[in-house]
Design brief:
mainly alpha, Na+/H+ antiporter like fold, 13 helices
Amino acid sequence: MAAALALFFKLTPLYVTVVLGWLAGRYLQASGRHIAGIMLYIVTPSIVFSGVMAAPLAPEIILLPFLVFGFCSFLGITHQALARRWIGDSSAAIMPLCVGSPNAGYFGVPVALLLFGEEGLAIYIVCMLGTSLYESSVGFYLAARGRYSVPDALKRVARLPSMYAFALAVTLNLSDVGIPQVFEPLFDNLRGTYSILGMMIIGMSISSFRGLAGNLRFTALAFFGKFVSWPLLASAFWWLDVTHMGVYSDAVHKAIFLISITPIAANTVVIATMLDTSVKQAAGTVLLSTVVALVTIPLMVALAF
């Protein structure tokens, strides 16, 4: 329980950052839409690139992002099918992002550093890349299909740079080419930017603290998918690998489990803002999930680790 309390206090700055983002949007007219473009096209690909470059890429490690990508895709597609039947409005388009995309980056990276240290953080980032790949491909495509035709949605996916950053980093890493030392401070600064702007954009997207839940059916299904379905799937994989397959270490199991219990990704708001699709619903649901995670993550970590 002491570890849970320490983690609880460690997370407090993230919530302060959300409030600062709200103040910037409310009183400084800061534009979340402009920052969304910077995050999606510049900052996120940089984090993907530097994370892969720092990871030890054994064959089973290279497969980790695709494993997590598969988990995200399965959860996102199945819960969108439920949303179309149960909710029945345009907000169903962003359900795959709310359920399939955990906030493994903006929220999870600081928590992973606290729990696992620098060495464990590299494994966590490799797992996290699966969520970035999902957001930049299947998740973005399903959300874009709410407004665009199939060809237009695919064109928008093809313009997202995170997948190309991942492929380039794998190629360079396997060729024993590292990041030049002179650029290392740049990527360190971008990692901090990733967390700060990612949390602030949630606050910028909230125009009022009233009515955050929006459509209660949407919020209930998103919460069920993120806080029940995701941890159950991660726990099932942990049990299956330990008892039958024996492929991955305990560090990998813990990294995937941590991804599963993080709140809904702030990039859900980023993408909803760019697509102009149910932005307030996305922002309110993300913020509420982040508040819930303030309590649930320390408790779940204390129980599982």
